[in-house]
Amino acid sequence: MADFVVTNAGTAAYNDTYTEDGAYGGKPAYTGDTNGMYLFYGGFAIPAPGDGWVLHNSKTDSGGGIIFFAYYYGAGTQATPPEGTYTAGSGGAGDADVAAAPEIYSHADGGSVVVLGGEQSRGPWYNTDGGVVLFDGGADTRGPYYYVGGGEVVFAGGQRVVMPFSQVGGGLVIFAGGGIGDPLISGGVIVFSGGQVVEGNQTYEVAEGGVIIFEGGQMAITHRGGGQSTTEWDWVRGKGR
Amino acid sequence: MSVSSERFIKAFRGMVQEGKVVLFQNQTTRQGESEEFLGQLLDPANLFAKNFNTDDMWLVYYRGAVDPDADSPAWTETLSGTVTHSSDGDVFTIVDDSDDEHLYYASPTQATLDSAVGSILEAKVRVSVGGSGANRGAALSIFDGTRQYTAWLRSDGVNIDGEANVAINMTPWRRVKLVGRGDGCQLFIDGDIQQTGWYMNPTVKQQFAFGSYVGG
Predict the structure, then answer these.
(1) What is the ipTM score, two decimals?
(2) Which residues of A touch B176 (CB under 8 A)?
């Protein structure tokens, strides 16, 4: 299971997906799936004093007190690698960004996935070849959501749903109440059936002959505009007809 | 119509064309206002039923003499960033030189609007700088308690929110009118219809707004 993803490192070998692989410094350690670099915590002074999470080409000890590692986050006692920017140290160019790898919920060949209240889940969610994904109340989910080849996805209430959505080749997405969505949807049928607020600088797009239905109660708010302008206003006036 | 009424109207029309009409309370009108006033005055329902009231003409009226938020009644300013803006005593200028900044003004809450009846927002404005492409630029917006209607204005075109760009040179002074009613709205420039479109957002607000951007 992939655990962390490193991007934007100036030393490209560190850009990789890191999977838990044993322990070091009393905490889990991670090894790059492709390039074999390491993300780990050790008994080092970084830069001094304090221990912290680092990226380096070997799980080793700096000898203390100096920035020995390719990238370091800074002093801390986090149980797992903190997400954020890791500063370039010895042998590293530019800074590196470390983020938790998304969980992959793969839902194929029919069947159903049910996420019941209170969970905070992170995609991507794959729903292929039919089947149903049901988010039933209170869940805080984050996309992307992929629905390919039909199937049905139901957000049944109370959850906050974060974009993006990609729906290709039909299928059905239902926001059945109470959710707060920020979706980018293409294809198929999208139903906002009540209670939720859909807000954001987003485009609701139905491709391939689909339909968007707002069935009541919700507000879909668009924010557009911006850009530079110089305007002169002689007068402005308004009235009812 | 009686002969005396016709004489009065002829004389009044001449005064309007000379731009010297003095309305009630010694308020001197501009040409556009005079035309509007004349149009309403010439309506027999107003002239002879004695129900004409200048207060009913426009619910809100900003004349550019001071900054809108310093006007009486004051418009509500929404400023993001450091957008340059000032009135020279007759014209109010907004210089928005950043994509990340905006400035707009919402009318005092005296507007009482009805989406089923419709609303009109009108401005005399010119846009000397403005990027191309729909749904950007300066804006006029009506919030009628049910629907928000927005027109975007750029130096080379205009559009109702969500619609395509209509090419028009907006660098000369233009009289822009946005009319919203129910789900639909229409945009006029100098009296000519430019576009018909749909409302932008649902809203519970009742106000008019203008500026380098108008929020929902």
Answers:
(1) 0.77
(2) none
